[in-house]
Amino acid sequence: MQKKIKRKTENYLKVFLGILSMGLAIYIASTVFYRAKIDLTDEGIYSLSKGSKALLSKLDSPIRLKLYYSKTAANKGTEGLRSFNNYFLYVHDILKEYVAHSRNNLALQIIDPRPDTEDEEEAEAYGLKRFHITETERYFFGLVAISESGSEKIIEFFDPNKRDGLEYEITKLIYSVLSPQKKKVGVLSPLPIVQDEISPYMAQIMQMQGREVSQSWPIINMLREFHEVKSLGRDIETISGIDTLLIIHPTGLSDQTLFAIDQFVLQGGKALVLVDPHAFTGTPQNAPPSPMGGMPLNVSPDEKFRKLMDKWGIAAMEGAFAGDKYLSAMGRLSAYDPPTRLLPLMVCNRRCTESFKDPMTRGLEQLTFFFPGALKAQSVDGITVESFLSTSDKGSTYEVYPHELADPRIFWNKMEDGKEAVLMGMKAFGKFKTAFPDGVLIEKKPVAGPTANKQIERKQTEKKTGILESSKDGVVVVIADVDFIAAQFAFKQSFLGLGPANDNSTLLLNALEALNGNVDLMSVRSKGHANRSFEAIEAIEFEADRKTEKKAMEINGNIVRFEQELAELSKQANQDNMALIQNESLKKKKALSRKIVGLKKELREVKRDGRERVEFIGKIFQYVNTLLMPLFVIIFGIWFLHFRKRKKTHETSTVDAEQMVEQSL
Fold first, then answer.
1. Among 220, 222, 225, 226, which Cα is nearest to 193's?
2. Domains with residue ranges and CATH for the chain
3. CA 482 from centroid of its chain's CA atoms
4. Model-level pTM?
5. What tens digit of pLDDT does each residue of 324-338 get?
């Protein structure tokens, strides 16, 4: 009896000690080890990236973070507005991570700006976005960073739809306060990419006056967030006073401009070059038609610029377009056409970048290109050439003629699957040699002189020479597409304004950051979201689409042929054979209709087969989740119950044996 009481007391003591230990462990974990955590996601999306931590380690002065969130107003608002509370908690937790890694240089303050208070006036003064809920209530959700010197930077509004880029936005904010000095980027292009900055108010006034408002491309406005953008003329003589040179669509540049580019790179300059076998965005609207019909190809680089690229060890394959049927995107040729796969419209995922392990493309999930070109490396002494962007291993190249641009569906049947990837992005670094060993003749401005009381103009030229070989390493990055940074392919409109539609702008910014040597922001920018696609399902859908499109083309071809036959019969008709022709037309129409019905049936079967295969895979995963896992739990429970019974039986038999021994003694 005493042993039973003693055992019962021990059990109570064990329970009490267990509860006490658990409470103590929770307290220690929430106070001492609150920073310790394990992020098991592949991309580390629940922890700060190395770039953010590196940037925080460089903080040597205090920065105040003021998070304005109208929590009271949100709780009074609609259900949709109250859902912002969850996103606020997420933002708050991320900011606490920043504070924890800042070596006490970041201080976070949470403010709920109520109506008619100083907090609300401050939020408005900082320029945070506000939304009117009622006549008195205003909704704020933004962040202000204030440095010790008084410099202020803001995030106007935290959009839950941009959750993937939250860390980048916060790190960008801190970087802007930490490094107010912007790098200078010189933009050289024959396209009207960079325009004078005009305020929205002035732009509206000019439009009301009927004047044309020329604005910079959205990518330039994004560049201005971090860089000082300088537009370089097409006939510039020397390039200086910039950190990085951005060349977009190099064609028609003068000799003196080419020589200036050559010398800039030889002096250790860094250049990012975008070339394109057909820059769709930059095609002039009034360009003369090609002799073969259709709009002419807007090609870059031209023959002169190719001489520069030859010295860099990178060549743009002339007349070659990069294509990949497995990366082709769905698109419409017009608003009335059904969506179809368009070979020129390429959506690159991880298969385009992961094999290269390059910091410029690490983490990029979706890149959209239109009529991209193909690059190849050339052997040049002292130059190292590396690739960072390509098609999949089933990519190939194809040719484009001007008259084919009106119907991009032509290219689908023209191109065959390849056996190796086609390169679309390359970088070269080393000690470059000049492309102008003998210098270049520069035409000076005409000088007027009196001769026989007449003014005649005499053209004068001078020979310009420069460095023949660089003394320090230079870097050149080449991407074989221009359209990918245009507004229609890189940005989308939302109620908060124009924002990135994919990772296109990120690729350009990453390249510039890499050239400028700032890898902190680059590693943050390429982190933040991880799209996991089911490649098996995508392959099934792709094959179904190919078969569907083939059947659709077959049906459409029969319809066209039928119309041609009817037209021929109509031409042969006259008063004598009208009845015969009509009868023949009716027979052919019925026969062809039967064929079309049969083809449409096959088309439906192809679609159904692809859909059923995808649904079958979905059912397998459904059965695994709904049957296999519960079955596993049941089996484990039965085994555990059996194990406990055996253990209890063994303990009971042991106790009985001990009692028998005691009784015998």
1. 220
2. 50-177 (3.40.30.10), 184-208+215-283+291-317+346-390+423-452+459-525 (3.40.50), 535-664 (no CATH)
3. 15
4. 0.66
5. 988 988 877 666 667
